[in-house]
User: Fold this.
Amino acid sequence: MTGDVGGTIVVSESAPAEPVLAVRPPFYGRRHFLSRFVPVMSLAVVGIVAQVAAGTAALPFERLVTLDGVGGSKIEFLEDAVVKEQLLRHHIALRLTRLGSRESARVLSSDVDFYFPSGQPTAELVTRRRQAEQAYASPHRVFVSPIVLATYREYAETLRAAGVATPQANQDSALPHYYDLDLARFLDLARAGRSWNDLGIATHGFTNGNTVLAQTPDVCAANSAATYLGLVAYVTRGGIPESEQDAVDLARQIKPLLREQGLPIRNADALYFIPEGRGILPVAVIYEHQYLAHQVRRVEAGIGVDDERVLLYPNVTFQSEPTLIALNEEAQQLAQHLATDPVLRRRALELGYRPLLDQSLSESSEELPRFLAERGVPAPSMSTSYTRAVLPDAPTLEAMITTVGDCPP
Assistant:
């Protein structure tokens, strides 16, 4: 309030002040915006750049095909994180069910897009049954992993002293990791009831009164066990059975060579790699890739090569070729990627497999020895001088499996 007092203007202290208009800066100029927004935006940009570089930026906008697959132990290859990520780049996702190879062939389902058994006998069963139904079935061989006998250095050296095992030619004779095994002489030790103690295992600081033989997984379920059964039968007979009845008679004859020490150990391959394995099963039937992947993992982890565990390669052999059987066109594309994609082929090497030169050929490539040499892992011989066994056809082998394993119908 104002007034004129003696020519002086008086302003009342209670007079209201003029309103002040505050102009706020835009959101990007506010005090804390940049400190909070820039790091978040940077992360987003880095993520986009990484997706573009990896070729996955467009995946959310492209059609993703999900395939259902069933198979034996080789399903583990498709479960690998690197493999799954690379298949996503091809717009393929997988839902996988792991069963024993033989078991997977017995539960054929119209809801499955592909089967991936560990060897040809089961692949043949699946293909035959699909063809009998006049249904789509396209087999594709992906890589090779021979059946081997995994053991420990003390047992291998005991066999070496007995004249049954010999270090491969490319090995350090003082510390070999791979031996050639005279399978016929090895089986003769079992037939004669010879124990490891009989062969002088005690000279290596061990005692083991068990019969000298190889432990297999369940022959009713596992391809590795069925393949070893076929090898034992071939060596015993000097060929394949002439009839199904002949096969059954032969199976009864060789059954003690596979079941002498009681029921099979379902996870024989896993037990071999644990510290207690030496006392549980001196010799286990496994695939070569399992051993090689074990060695590569150790070297990459900085632990070094495992000198305690070694492999025996039977001088009568059968190339085990995991076969993906596509049941439709979309699964056919999956098989093509597995065979030709360089990232997937490289990953197969890292997991110990021998990639095939070509799907139409039985020979594996020379990539594996080179890869192992790069990693400082001793490589087995790629010799083709072994005697190639011939397995019986699928129905005949099935009769032998049922006889040896007392398999349920």
About this structure: The radius of gyration is 32 Å. Confidence is low (pLDDT under 50) at residues 1-22, 48-54, 358-362.
